Amino acid sequence: MADIKTVATIAGVSPSTVSNVFSKKKFVSEEAKQRVLRVCKELNYMPSVMASSIITKSTNIIGFFDVQGQGYSDVYSDMIKGITRKAAELGKGVLLNIGLKDPDELNSVLRAGCQPVDGAILPLPLERDLRIENLSFKAVPHVLIGSPYRKYEKTSSVDVDNTLLSYKLTNHLINLGHKRIAMINYKSGYTVTDDRQKGYELALKEAGIHVSKELVFHTGIKEQDGFDCIEALFAKRIEFSAAIVSMPEAAEGVYKAIEKNEKKVGEDISVAAFSSDKGMHNPLLTAVDTDYVRVGTEAMEILQELIENKSEKPIRRILESEIIFTQSCQRYKGRL
């Protein structure tokens, strides 16, 4: 079977030129390109990613490395859509790994010091993030979707201002007269969780409202997670008139728990979320409207810049998001 070196010899070009014909990483004259393609056809040669990577030191593959236990959602679908579209424009493929269990699993992907990806995108940074440590040790360029903790401050990232958005959501409810506001946050140990908690507490403190620990939850993003939190408040007779939820999937559970306890969303208990439900809830959910396709696109653009320029200086981008206010949040009517 013909290999890249055989094609190069017969076409009268270097092996890297053959690789560039397919990767489009560098300019190849039309005359040389046609010679290479003609030889490939005659020899029935198909380009091998691994073979060309030996010549170019590049695989044109990007890794998307998730961590265990996050759960899948429309947010991830949109992120991945943005990443894969931009990667395709740049002539790159994307290796999706949803649910890394431990650093050994990532080591197996990056085994024996051989780098099968040119770079990586890591959603939801952790307080102790072995993905970052592993990739940094192997000098693999990587970008976070989310803000890094201080010890990873040299890591590039793209994010929205979760502290500010949480502050605005909480302040909106306070301005509607709510003082007992439940916070159904994501799991502990993530920067997104900490940032949202900061915004929530800041708004309450500025309004002179005590931050009640019994109203704060750290849980997953599934419908059952939201349902269980609200059920616990009702079961323990903990007073609240509003709730801020991490994701629309969890908000669905919140809606159902409120209805189960013979209350109405908006009229009796106001509900808001950190991500839009795209019009699926009734009443429509007050939520942060973030373009996660753009988030994925920006992450891919930053990663490409790091790969091309091999810069050690981190690149940081904070994207704008707006809050869509709806009838799921209404004025407090004086009953808890």
In short, what is this structure?
This protein has 336 residues and is an alpha/beta fold.
Question: What can you see in these coordinates?
Answer:
The protein is an alpha/beta fold and 336 residues long. It folds into 3 domains: 4-56, 434 Repressor (Amino-terminal Domain); 61-160 and 292-320, Rossmann fold (3-Layer(aba) Sandwich), CATH 3.40.50.2300; 162-290, Response regulator (Rossmann fold, 3-Layer(aba) Sandwich), CATH 3.40.50.2300. It is 43% helix and 17% strand. It is built from 12 helices and 12 strands. The chain has helices spanning 4-11, 15-23, 30-42, 49-56, 74-89, 103-109, 130-137, 162-175, 191-206, 223-235, 248-260, 292-309, and strands spanning 61-67, 93-100, 119-123, 142-145, 156-160, 181-185, 216-218, 242-245, 270-273, 286-289, 316-319, 322-324. The strands form 2 sheets. A 6-stranded parallel β-sheet has the order 2-1-3-4-5-11, with helices on both faces. It has a 6-stranded mixed β-sheet with strand order 7-6-8-9-10-12, sandwiched between helices. Helix 2 packs across helix 4. It is elongated, with a radius of gyration of 25 Å. The mean pLDDT is 87.
